[in-house]
Design a protein that fits this description.
The complex is a heterodimer of chains A (192) and B (124). Chain A has helices at 3-12, 16-38, 41-57, 69-87, 95-100, 112-119, 124-130, 134-146, 150-157, 161-191. Chain A has 192 residues and is mainly alpha-helical. Helix content of chain B is 78%, strand content 0%. Chain B is elongated, with a radius of gyration of 37 Å. Chain B has 4 helices and no strands. Chain B is mainly α and 124 residues long. The chains are: A mainly alpha (192), B mainly alpha (124). Chain A binds chain B through residues 14, 16, 19-20, 23-24, 27-29, 31-32, 35-36, 41, 44-45, 48-49, 52-53, 56-57, 60, 113, 117, 120-121, 123, 125-126, 129, 140-141, 143-145, 149-150, 165, 168-169, 172-173, 175-176, 179-180, 182-183, and chain B through 7-8, 11-12, 15, 17, 42-43, 45-47, 49-58, 60-64, 66-69, 71-73, 75-77, 79-80, 83-84.
Chain lengths: 192, 124
Amino acid sequence: MSDINRLIQRWQAGDERAAEAIYNQYRGLTFGLAFALLSNSADAEEVTQDSLTYALTNIGRYDAQQARFFTWLHTITVSRCRNKRRRRYLPSISLFAWLKKGRDITDPTPTPEHQALDGALRDEAWQAIQTLKPHHREAVVLRYWADFTYQEMAEILGCSARAARSRLQSAHKQLGPILAQNELINLEETIQ
Amino acid sequence: MKQHLSYQQLLDYIYHALTGTQRETLDFHLTTCPECRTRLAEQETIARRMRYSVQAVRRQTEPPWHVNFAAIAPRVKRSRRLTMFVKQSNQVLYGAATLVVLVALGIGLVILFNNFSQPAPAPQ
């Protein structure tokens, strides 16, 4: 039995230290995936906490026979990212936060920490990936994030393996001319 | 295989989504077709760049310090305790329900036994 399955069993039996160990093991990975899908660190933070809270509180629903914990957590994270993307255009603040702040809602501009992270990735290929449609981008990120197979991608994305394959191929087709062109420019610059 | 490889076949080749036989057939074609080799190399470059880019994000992104377990612990623990309570309550309820069914069954059997053991009234 793997370490994570042992931790899950301990948490299912009520050991709270196991929950913290699971959280710490997947915190970075979940944040990274959310950031890769949303390109916004503040949103990624929220999705990370939300996904891990859901996974830990609903650990009883996880079935090790059906999927790896890693895959299950990715399914939750991708779903939360989709919800976040849908709500992005409707900025909201919770009533509790509003009351707590004495009705002094702070400026929503990102903190320097967030700006640094959001601006850290200026890679051309990454910029190109961000121009993709959300479901194509999900396919590309999942494929190159953890080398998921078409079947695993399908489980996470909630579609058929054929659809997952088709999404990845569409993304590849779309990015092909951009990346191939940039590759030529980079080569020319190197030669000069 | 005389025809050139399709775009889909090239991508399946890169993504290792082919069976052994299919891969062998494609390998054979690639040894004899320089054009398909060039196209495959192009697609491999694109895939490599995408992989590099996504992996760079994975390496570079680190959650801020305030994204920690302490922030969600009360919610997680409360929910877990509630789940355990519901589970235990359910067990008690199932036990009680089973007991009620058994008692009812016992009473039913006693009544049935009494009815059979009483002598039938004599015809007048």
